[in-house]
Each structure stands twice: as C-alpha cells, then as structure tokens.
Design brief:
The complex is a heterodimer of chains A (159) and B (190).
Chain A lengths: L4 H20 L2 H17 L7 H20 L10 H6 L6 H11 L3 H11 L5 H8 L3 H19 L7
Chain B lengths: L2 H9 L15 H4 L16 E3 L6 E4 L2 E10 L2 E10 L2 E7 L5 E7 L1 E3 L5 E3 L2 H8 L3 E4 L5 E5 L2 E4 L8 E8 L2 E8 L4 E4 L7
Classes of the chains: A mainly alpha (159), B mainly beta (190).
C-alpha cells in the first residue's frame, strides 16, 4: 500500500513536526527532520501493509532523523523551545504548564510520553517503533508520569 | 478532562511553518541526501574539510575561502569559491596540475521553495562521507583520510559501512544503485 505525497503531507506533517519537536526542541531542526522524512518516504521503494504501517514507519524515521540532526557537529544556534512555547496560543494556563513540564523531561521520557498521549500508541507498539524492549518503554513511561505528577500536582491525573 | 485530552490540546498547537503542498520534483537526486544539504553533487568524488582559522576573502557577489581538501583520501589545499547557488573548488592534483570542480546546491524549503545554500551548509555537506560509483563499476567510500572499496561487499544490494573518527561513529547504509543514507545512531534499513 502507498499513499500519495499529498496525502502523506496533509495527514502527517504537523504530527511528525510535533514529535520531532519533542526530540529537537527547536522549530528549525524539527522541520528539517520532517522534510527529510517526507523525502525519504517519497524515494522509498517500500510497499506498506497498511496506513498504520506507514504511520509507524514515518514516526520511526522522523525520530531517528531528529536525533541525528540534533547530534550534528555543524548545528547552528537555534531558538529554544521556550521561545516557541511563548508564541503558542494555549487555551488554558495548565496547558502551558503541561507543555513546559514535558519539554523539561529528558528526551527518552518526552518521546514515550508523546507517543502514548498524543499518538495513542500502547507500550508494545511504542517498543516496536522505537526498537527497544517493552519493559524499557514501560519503565520510562512510568518514570515520566511520576515526574509530571511531581511537577504538575493536581493538574496531572496519571491516567 | 483526562491527561490524554489535556496533552493533545496542548501539543496540537505545534504546527509546521507552512501549509503548502510540497512538490518533490526530482526525487532521484534528493532521496539520498538530507534536505538543506547540497542537492546536486559535483562530478568528481571530492571530500572537503574546512579548517577553522583559514584566510577569508570577501568577493563581490560571493564568498571565497581557503580550505583543506580531502580528495580520495589525500589532503591538499584548495580554494572554495561560492557564488549564489554554485561553487567552484580549485586545487592542484598529485602532479601539480591545476584542477577545478564545480557544483551547485540549493536548500529546498519545507514546501518546495528553493534558496541558495549558506557557506556553512555547503561546508557541512562537504564534510560528510562520500560514496562514489565509478565508471569501472567499483564502489568506494571516502571519509577524510579513510577510503574503502566496497564493490564486492553488497549482500542483497545493500552494504553496511561503519566509519569511526575521534570517537564519532557514522553508520552508512549503501545500496548498489541508489546511493546511501547515514546515521549516527545505527544502520538505517533501506
């Protein structure tokens, strides 16, 4: 199964950007990662089993690209996530506190939190996409939730 | 409200900068390289390392910089001249004969808009490993002073190459016909 470039672009660009942003923590690098991912999809000869398979592939690639970009020797100074956050029109103050708390986590926690709470993946699916054991994902998710609870108090239910 | 609902509400505000349809016109030459790097490669397989404290001369409409060049594993001095979307690299070969290589590069924005690469972006790309598919059918990997022939190393059309320098490890996934991809985290499956 293959989706057209237009379908991929319209459906997944913002979602891929969000997950890349949780890794890179700046707009420019996140957009680079998304762009790399979309181009790689277009050039890939791979035939996917389903749209879910495509989505998982895109997410895995964008995470890896985001990590590579962030680790690049030649990275220029980038505006940080705090500046990005300042420009976001949060509906409620608790939303900005949640955003800040998540972005303050270590990357390994941010990624699993985002995949669980935003992409609705379960632990097994997250493990498969990230290529790590389910126990590791479970442990990271648990730890991330505890950190968020400690920071957000009653604004985080741990559900 | 559940944590999930609150999380989605907060993070759904993250949007990529533009919302135009991206046109990927020439996929053959971009699918190998990350975007915001050089889109078109120069004809010769040349690697370049720009040293930090080199002479810099501003020229009308361009940038000229003295660089140290890795050419097929050997280091030499060269002059990199960047003008708009193109650059010229001038150097002397092992026989002292003047040589020049011309190339061009554009960065394709998220939605198909082009702009000339910056000097930093060109240097960044030129410092990357290079895979050369030569006319005699051989395939070579070059990275600074390292060179490796991988012609007979392909299995099912793929060869995995690991490059190490100063504690940094680069993982290359090279295909027999379609170029290569690179990662610092592990081999990317083709």
């Amino acid at each position: 199964m293959r989706l057209t470039t237009e379908e991929i672009f319209r459906t997944y660009t913002d979602r891929l950007f969000a997950i890349a942003f949780t890794v890179c923590q700046n707009r420019e690098d996140a957009e680079d990662a998304v762009q790399d991912t979309l181009i790689r999809y277009c050039g890939a000869k791979k035939d996917f089993e389903s749209e879910e398979h495509i989505r998982a592939w895109l997410i895995r690639v964008v995470i890896n690209r985001a990590k590579d970009i962030r680790a690049s020797f030649w990275r220029r100074k980038r505006a940080g996530w705090e500046e990005e956050m300042a420009a976001l029109p949060f509906e409620e103050p608790e939303d900005s506190r949640l955003f800040e708390a998540v972005m303050g986590l270590e990357e390994k926690y941010r990624v699993v939190i985002h995949m669980f709470y935003y992409e609705d993946y379960d632990i097994r699916e997250i493990a498969r996409i990230l290529g790590c054991p389910g126990g590791t994902v479970k442990s990271r998710l648990s730890r991330a939730r505890a950190l968020l609870k400690n920071t957000l108090k009653e604004d985080w239910n741990n559900d | 409200m559940t944590d999930k609902e609150r999380y989605k509400r907060a993070f759904s505000l993250l949007r990529a900068s533009e919302h135009d349809l991206m046109e990927v016109a020439s996929m053959d030459h971009v699918k190998v390289l990350p975007v915001r790097r050089l889109v078109s490669l120069c004809a010769a397989a040349v690697l370049i390392v720009a040293m930090a404290s080199v002479a810099y001369a501003a020229d009308i409409g361009g940038i000229q910089r003295k660089v140290q060049v890795w050419i097929h594993g050997d280091q030499t001095n060269a002059v990199l001249d960047i003008r708009g979307k193109s650059y010229t690299l001038s150097y002397e070969d092992e026989n002292g004969e003047p040589r020049s290589v011309a190339g061009g590069g554009v960065a394709i924005g998220l939605f198909g808009k082009e702009r000339p690469l910056t000097e930093e972006e060109i240097l960044e790309h030129l410092d990357s490993p290079e895979v050369a598919y030569l006319e005699d059918g051989s395939v070579w990997v070059y990275y600074h002073d390292q060179k490796l022939e991988i012609t007979d190393k392909f299995v099912d059309g793929v060869c995995y190459v690991q490059l190490q320098e100063d504690g940094r490890v680069l993982y290359l996934t090279v295909t027999e016909q379609e170029g290569y991809t690179m990662s610092t985290h592990g081999y990317v499956k083709p």
